[in-house]
Predict the structure.
Amino acid sequence: MNFWTDPVNFVAQWLLGLLTGWGMPGWLASLLVQLIGVVVLVSMMMVIDIFLVWIERKVVARFQDRLGPNRVGPFGIIQPFADIIKLIIKEDITPNGADKLIYNLAPILSLMSVLLLWAIVPLAPVILGVDLNVGALYIIAAGAIGTLSIIMAAWASNNKFALLGAFRQVAVLVSFEVPMLATMLIPTILAGSMGMNEIIQSQNVWYIVLAPLAGLIFMIAAIAELGRAPFDLNEAESEIVAGYHIEYTGMKFGLFYAGELLHAFTFGGFWAILFLGGYRFFGLENLGPIVAAAILMAKALFGYWLIMWVRYTVMRIRIDHMLAFNWKFLTPLAFTLLILTALMNALLRGTSSGVYILGMLLTNVILGWIIVEILRGFSRRERERVEGPQQAVAHQ
């Protein structure tokens, strides 16, 4: 074993030998090495989070024909650090009547729920925290902590407007978890496992080719889970303040903001793992675990860019339209796709790879065509109801 073939275990064994050589008991040295690994992973994610602040501002500036940060440091790269200093030195306010323990715990849980997800992310075949055989369920379970933090923040703030905003946001989060979980089961069916590493290893053909509708539904549900446009009801509470965390100031607000950015990047990573082959890319992952980790990070950044593209392009929609879109369209479509995928996977199992790929792809294409026709008919009937038959025909 050397550093380039297994860097994590190489460093861990070196530290373990160093600590035991100093007379530390083996169990204590092993525990300390594991804690150091957790600290290193969290520190790496926070550094990425700082980078995401800069890159999102530069990307949105390009979308809006602006320059973005360009004064503090080369290309404005030091601007996020200036923002952190500003948040740290701002006055820390706790509302009268607030539950101080829960009020201060909520932003920590919000960020922690995102960091916990990285425990099961396989950056490379030999670089991963825990190889859970129920990784798909773990994603939903850990994400629920973020939902809990929203309710905690609003209730503990002793602000009725924050509480109403939290109810609206949580209604969206709970609703869109249903199609997200349904589409996460599709890679599980195709791979025969819920483990993230097994799903990656089974993608000789990326699952976005076998199940493009599942990848699309997962991305839509992920954007809703993130509370980003067009599903950003937290920002839509008064168009000035941000709903459930209206009472938070300084670095406590900064933790909510950091959690949102890192959450978007994390979902981009899981989208890459479930549908884009994870760290696999035409054999380049065989060059070493560091190259494989770089491939996964690049794919996660691509998913994050798609989320930004939607956010800064699509207008916000009303909550009743949003929930109707989920329960009347997205959820039935996700379950229909899940049933068809399971059926076709059983029927095509044992056939040649070309027949299998073509059969799975045609299933998605035909279902997509049926959905488009249904939506077209619904749109025509709705236009006739609002405008009258004559005007509707003229618009066609």
Q: What stands out?
A: Residues 7-395 form one domain.
